């Protein structure tokens, strides 16, 4: 596996590809892989997922090449400024603010990198990225849902132990800790922002215009026993989600908690290989 790093406006953007990628002229599928809260691009579960994806692409003759793209979330890894802002209600009264701003900021970073990465990698236009996808774990899974909803260029989405219903998830978390869904933990100004911009605030269960998931390929991977991002927080939205001519696959792994299991990695790799 070959890794390169480009710096775009101060953001370290890492790319991973097969050894044969540099000499290929095939069109490219670029897949972002986003890490979880308290992690980074160097977290073992992220590096293992990236290695499995690139390894799978190397072992198969496909019409397109795979390029995996990764960067640190805001306030994580090389971008860390305040560790307390990444903590739960117990240590951080702004948990709702901080986690939502990070995941929405990361979705915006995905769009930003899509704008500029081809110019940095292929200065003479010698290669083309013909399709974009996003896969993310936990916090990265939340960002995956948002990026797929907000940017029409994202055609493939693999949220892993993530949730599309932010308020539903945070409501369960607050209830478990005896916190009211009211100020100061849930300011009304923040609730307005969340309700206007999260996937559950839009008509994604519709087959008509206005549903940005139409035509997209989505693989949802969750643990049936996940205590941190319980399947119950996502289930209603996922079951109602319409993708039209796209595809929707849902795997809720029995016995799995808040973890990236080998079975989830295998499912993600198989899903991506079918796109190449």
TrEMBL record:
<protein>
    <submittedName>
        <fullName>Alpha/Beta hydrolase protein</fullName>
    </submittedName>
</protein>
<dbReference type="InterPro" id="IPR029058">
    <property type="entry name" value="AB_hydrolase_fold"/>
</dbReference>
<dbReference type="GO" id="GO:0016787">
    <property type="term" value="F:hydrolase activity"/>
</dbReference>
<keyword id="KW-0378">Hydrolase</keyword>
């Amino acid at each position: 596996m070959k890794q390169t790093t480009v710096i775009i406006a101060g953001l370290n953007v890492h790319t991973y590809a097969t050894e044969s990628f540099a000499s290929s002229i095939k069109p490219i599928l670029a897949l972002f892989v986003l890490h979880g809260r308290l992690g980074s691009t160097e977290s073992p579960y992220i590096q293992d997922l990236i290695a499995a994806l690139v390894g799978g692409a190397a072992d198969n003759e496909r019409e397109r090449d795979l390029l995996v793209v990764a960067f640190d979330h805001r306030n994580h890894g090389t971008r860390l400024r305040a560790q307390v802002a990444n903590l739960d209600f117990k240590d951080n009264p702004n948990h709702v603010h901080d986690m939502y701003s990070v995941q929405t900021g990361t979705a915006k970073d995905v769009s930003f990198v899509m704008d500029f990465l081809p110019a940095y990698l292929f200065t003479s236009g010698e290669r083309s990225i013909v399709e974009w996808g996003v896969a993310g774990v936990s916090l990265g899974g939340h960002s995956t849902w948002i990026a797929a909803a907000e940017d029409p260029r994202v055609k493939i989405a693999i949220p892993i132990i993530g949730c599309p219903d932010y308020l539903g998830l945070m409501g369960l978390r607050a209830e478990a800790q005896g916190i009211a869904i009211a100020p100061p933990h849930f300011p009304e100004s923040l609730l307005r922002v969340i309700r206007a911009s999260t996937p559950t605030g839009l008509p994604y269960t519709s087959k008509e215009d206005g549903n940005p998931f139409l035509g997209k390929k989505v693989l949802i991977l969750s643990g049936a026993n996940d205590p941190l991002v319980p399947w119950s927080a996502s289930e209603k939205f996922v079951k109602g989600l319409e993708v039209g001519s796209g595809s929707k696959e849902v795997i809720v792994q029995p016995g799995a908690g808040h973890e990236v299991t080998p079975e989830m990695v295998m499912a993600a790799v198989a899903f991506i290989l079918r796109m190449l």
